[in-house]
Inverse folding.
């Protein structure tokens, strides 16, 4: 229930007054309600729980995390060569 | 898959493990709150890759596990009523009540259905105006926004045959209860990333300060989990105790404001019993009076509920991180996912099910290896 996997918004439409999207999870497509991420656009990745997107994945933050990990990995190399 | 695969790669996992080994100097006990994190930790064997100084204990964040027996028994009673279609997330169907589970209600002729989202239950209500559609609204702050929206949608659509059996629980009061309990061993928390995606993490700085424990917002993939562990250990080793975000791509300090607004509108705080743990003050949400028409507990009279827990199940102590699933005499023998004594053996987020699925295979593999 809490394992929200990010999926990509493919299409957005209105159903019974709610903003709904087709979201692709690595090839599996599901209907997802976008009521809580009204700013989501086609192409965005969203974290989905029980049919509702609760967060838009931030590309910028993901990039920063990658850089941080690369820094840690780079830190590891000199230690290794020193030993 | 984007935003998944890159967080499961071996290279960053090993780099993070090396950095954790360099950082840790003393033994520390960390608790991951969320059952989804517990499963990822066991599935990838992260607890065995971490240096021996770091002990991970598993928290109460399994929604199915902590749903109180009384609410499960109410669900069973409502689901057995004629004219009712009872809908639930799939995990809930095999959770044992005092005598039986929802599956056996279905086997006895009850209309019990698994739905993926509460909006599926709304669709059932629209399509079946002659039946009462009841949805079992359980879970933490991650499922609550969906369940709250289903109430607003039912109101908007004028549905009179839709109601919720509400049993929502919240994470911060549980953290208070764990840290305030005598004999608490937890020195740092990996906070549940997606609960924080909804609620933000502005509730955590006062907790970190009051109990002097780091609280680090943590995601669910191996790289995310180790990043959370590293951040927590760095704080502990330097004597800091702060709320910190190690899952920035999905979580902001404020959280999801539209979701918080709807939660505030539909639910109000209430005392809530946690299965195996007991009542935690103001740890749950119930429907506000304005939405009483959608409250299944008011719509259906199920009489007196008398609950009876299994005597041999230690789920309560497992949920509080005091015992590990293999410490239970019934584990893997009297209690299995097919015949669970407690909810922690049922759920895909329960600690007992995680040990049964992942550690039992290792034990079997070791046996095969020794035979060969």
């Amino acid at each position: 229930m809490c394992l929200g996997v990010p999926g990509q918004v493919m299409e957005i439409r209105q159903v019974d007054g709610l903003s709904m999207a087709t979201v692709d999870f690595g090839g599996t497509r599901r209907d997802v309600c976008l009521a809580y991420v009204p700013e989501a656009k086609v192409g965005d990745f969203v974290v989905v729980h029980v049919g509702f997107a609760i967060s838009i994945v931030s590309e910028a933050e993901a990039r920063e995390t990658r850089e941080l990990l690369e820094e840690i990995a780079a830190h590891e190399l000199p230690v290794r060569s020193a030993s | 898959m984007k935003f998944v695969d890159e967080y499961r790669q071996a290279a960053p996992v090993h780099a993070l493990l090396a950095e954790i080994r360099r950082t840790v100097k003393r033994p520390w006990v960390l608790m991951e709150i969320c059952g989804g994190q517990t499963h990822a930790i066991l599935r990838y064997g992260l607890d065995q890759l971490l240096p021996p100084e770091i002990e991970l204990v598993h928290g109460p964040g399994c929604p199915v596990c902590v749903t109180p027996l009384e609410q499960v028994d109410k669900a069973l009673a409502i689901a057995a009523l004629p004219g009712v279609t009872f809908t639930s997330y799939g995990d809930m169907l095999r959770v044992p009540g005092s005598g039986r589970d929802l599956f056996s209600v279905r086997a006895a002729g009850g209309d019990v259905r698994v739905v993926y989202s509460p909006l599926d239950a709304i669709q059932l209500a629209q399509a079946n105006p002659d039946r009462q559609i009841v949805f079992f609204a359980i879970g933490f702050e991650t499922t609550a926004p969906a369940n709250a929206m289903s109430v607003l949608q039912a109101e908007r659509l004028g549905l009179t045959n839709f109601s919720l059996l509400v049993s929502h629980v919240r994470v911060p009061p549980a953290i208070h209860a764990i840290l305030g309990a005598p004999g608490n061993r937890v020195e740092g928390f990996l906070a549940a990333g997606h609960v924080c995606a909804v609620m933000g993490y502005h509730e955590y700085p006062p907790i970190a300060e009051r109990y002097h424990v780091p609280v680090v917002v943590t995601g669910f993939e191996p790289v995310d989990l180790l990043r959370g562990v590293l951040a927590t250990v760095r704080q502990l080793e330097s004597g800091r105790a702060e709320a910190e975000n190690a899952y920035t791509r999905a979580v902001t300090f404020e959280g999801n404001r539209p979701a918080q607004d709807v939660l505030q509108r539909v639910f109000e705080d209430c005392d809530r019993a946690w299965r195996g743990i007991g009542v935690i003050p103001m740890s749950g949400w119930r429907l506000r009076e304005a939405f009483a028409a959608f409250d299944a507990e008011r719509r259906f009279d199920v009489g007196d509920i008398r609950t009876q827990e299994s005597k041999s199940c230690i789920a309560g102590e497992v949920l509080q991180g005091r015992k590990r699933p293999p410490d239970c005499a019934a584990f893997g023998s009297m209690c299995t996912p097919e015949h669970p004594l407690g909810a922690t053996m049922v759920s895909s987020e329960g600690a007992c099910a995680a040990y049964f699925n992942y550690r039992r295979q290792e034990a079997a593999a070791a046996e095969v290896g020794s035979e060969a």
